[in-house]
Amino acid sequence: MAVIAIVLYVVFAALGFGWRSWVQYRRTGSSGFRGVSGRLGSLEWLAGAGFVIALIAGIAAPVLQLAGAVSPVSVLQLPWLQGVGTVLALVGIAATVYSQLDMGDSWRIGVDAGETTTLVRHGVFARVRNPIFAAMLAFAAGIALMAPNPLALSAFCVLLGTIELQVRVVEEPYLEGVHGDAYRRYLQTVGRFLPVIGRVG
C-alpha cells in the first residue's frame, strides 16, 4: 500500500501544485505562488514553514516505509483502514482540484498583503470557506492511513496545526482587512472547514 500512497502523492502534487500553477500562469501571467508570510519565527512564518515541512514529511513517510526505514503502527495496519485511506486520498485529490478551479483567478499559494483579490463566495465556497485546505487534510489523512507509520501520523498532525495557523493568523485577518463587512458577513454564514461548523459571530 505504500507504493500506491507514493503514486497518489505524486498525482496530488502534480495536479494540485504543478498543473494548477500552470493554469494560473496561462490565465493571469502569474503562477499564484506567494511564498511564506511574516518575519522569521513569527506565527505567520511558522504556518508557512510548517506547511512545507508537513508536505515533505508526508511523501517521505511512505517512501521510508517502503525502504524499511520506518515501520507501520501495527494497530493501524488493517486492510479496511487502508481501503478507507485510499478512498479518502482519492476524494481529497478530486476535491482539491475542484475547489482550486472554483476559486478561479483568485487562487494563490500564500498571501501577499499588498494584493487585493476577489472574495470568492460561489460554488463550493458558498458552503465552506476553506474547501481546498479541507480537501488537503482529507488527502493527508488518507495517505497516513495507507502507510500508517509514526512519520506519516506526525506529518498529518503538523499539517493540521499549520493549516489552522495559516487560516486563523494569516488568511482570515488579511481577507477581513481587504473585504471588510462583506467578509465579516461571509464569516457569519459559512463554516471554516465544514458546512456550518466554524461560523464566526
Automatic annotation (TrEMBL):
Coiled-coil intervals: none
GO MF term list: methyltransferase activity
Q: Transmembrane ranges? A: 6-23, 43-68, 80-98, 132-163
* Key word Membrane present: yes
Give the membrane topology. Answer: Multi-pass membrane protein
User: What domain of life does the native source organism fall in?
Assistant: Bacteria
Q: Which GO terms describe its cellular component?
A: endomembrane system
Q: Record keywords: Membrane included?
A: yes
Q: Where in the cell is it found?
A: Endomembrane system
Alphabetically sorted, this entry's keywords are:
Membrane, Methyltransferase, Transferase, Transmembrane, Transmembrane helix
Under the heading InterPro entries, the entry gives: Phopholipid_MeTrfase (IPR007318)
Q: Which GO terms describe its biological process?
A: methylation
Q: PANTHER family, alphabetically?
A: PROTEIN-S ISOPRENYLCYSTEINE O-METHYLTRANSFERASE, PROTEIN-S-ISOPRENYLCYSTEINE O-METHYLTRANSFERASE
Q: What is this protein called?
A: Isoprenylcysteine carboxyl methyltransferase
